[in-house]
Amino acid sequence: MKEFIIIWIGQLISSIGSGMTAFAVSIYVYQSTGSATLVSLAALLAFLPTILLNPVGGVLADRYDRRLMMILGDSLSALGLLFMLISIQTGHRGLMPIFIGVTINSVFVSLLEPAYRATVTDIISEENYAKASGLVQIAGTSKYLISPFIAGLILTVSDIRAILIFDIATIIITAFAVASVKKRIAVVKPITHNFNFFKEFEAGVNSITSDRGVRSLVILMTFMCFFIAFIQTLMTPMILSFADTKKLGIMESVSAVGMLTGSIIIGILNIKKNHPKILMVSLMAAGIFMALVGTTTNITFIVVSCFLFFTALPFVNTCADVLIRMRIPNDVQGRAWGMISVITQSGFVMAYAVCGALADYVFGPMLMEGGIFAGNIGQLIGTGEGRGIGFMLIIAGILMFVFAFIFGWKKSIYEMEGSIR
């Protein structure tokens, strides 16, 4: 557990840095253009390469030293940050350097994620899977909890360059943290035959498709990612339509305390049963709270709704993580997590590809003064800039609830816990 804690601390620090960069990039793009579409495009470019290349990272994580893959992925991802920093510093303040930089960063993160997930299985016993998952989510939460607050304060006295420098520094710290424990962890090398990428890729696919429970759960989590991407991407333009950058940073940090709360509760309780039921109930609750976020421009109400939304997510993620981790053999987990990542997070990609355009050109005009919904739905949730996004969040939240309810009755998911390998 000691080795896991050291690696986890490194990932916590890295997550804070990457969260600050993501926040600063969204602000930079929106303030430069005023376009939710371009904010979505930046998010897509920061995400799509990782998704597409995660299966490659998974294959490499099962063949080579997983800790080495983490170090390489983290270290090389700094090249994208350095590219953005140099471009802005030398006067290239258009969006193209930002788009190229986040893409480079995302390419190398694909080496990190499958190796990190498989490493947890390497060094943690089964009875501590839920606790470890809670801690991993706390680290992930930091990009919503701590990063926006710090970045918001820095951006009031400096600009995106300071954020990029900070992020590069966190990557260096993380690489040293993993390197410090690398020699004390046995290298998992289950593949001894001649390397054939396509056969290894196929093994990763089969580890998912051959299990009905895993297959159903992956489909459900894909839909969940699709709907969650709406609130992640559109929250910034919605809030900035009636508040300033500092309030946005504080609002995101305070509301994300909910995810920290949920993760801490999971870490303390170390959930060991009823994972399918907890997953479905939590996902339905998250859908309700997402819908509530879109109903108003009252910051206090939005913060409370976001708090409850993020409180529910760790329970969903942990239960899905434990069920899958215990069903799939360790020697294919790198490949399995790589494939699961590309499938589930394709939901994010699809949402990023459409939500900005829907906000700018479809739902936005509908809720402007004189729009088609201004006289009915607009009477309930308000009209003007940002209210079309609010309406989108209401729809996404309702659909999340419906999908959770439908999949909640699938026998294949409920039977997963009773037939864990």
UniProtKB/TrEMBL annotation:
SUPFAM superfamilies the UniProt entry points to: MFS general substrate transporter
Occurrences of domain Major facilitator superfamily (MFS) profile (ranges): 3-412
Entry annotated with the keyword tRNA-binding: no
Gene3D superfamilies in the cross-refs: MFS general substrate transporter like domains
Membrane topology: Multi-pass membrane protein
InterPro entries: MFS, MFS_dom, MFS_trans_sf
Subcellular locations according to the entry: Cell membrane
Keyword Transmembrane helix part of the UniProt annotation: yes
GO cellular component: plasma membrane
Keyword line: Cell membrane, Membrane, Transmembrane, Transmembrane helix, Transport
Membrane-spanning residues: 7-30, 36-56, 68-88, 94-112, 132-154, 160-181, 217-243, 249-271, 278-295, 301-324, 336-359, 389-409
Recorded GO MF terms: transmembrane transporter activity
Main location: membrane
Domain of life: Bacteria
PANTHER family: MACROLIDE-EFFLUX PROTEIN, MAJOR FACILITATOR SUPERFAMILY (MFS) PROFILE DOMAIN-CONTAINING PROTEIN
Annotated protein name in UniProt: Major facilitator superfamily MFS_1
Species of the source: Alkaliphilus oremlandii (strain OhILAs) (Clostridium oremlandii (strain OhILAs))
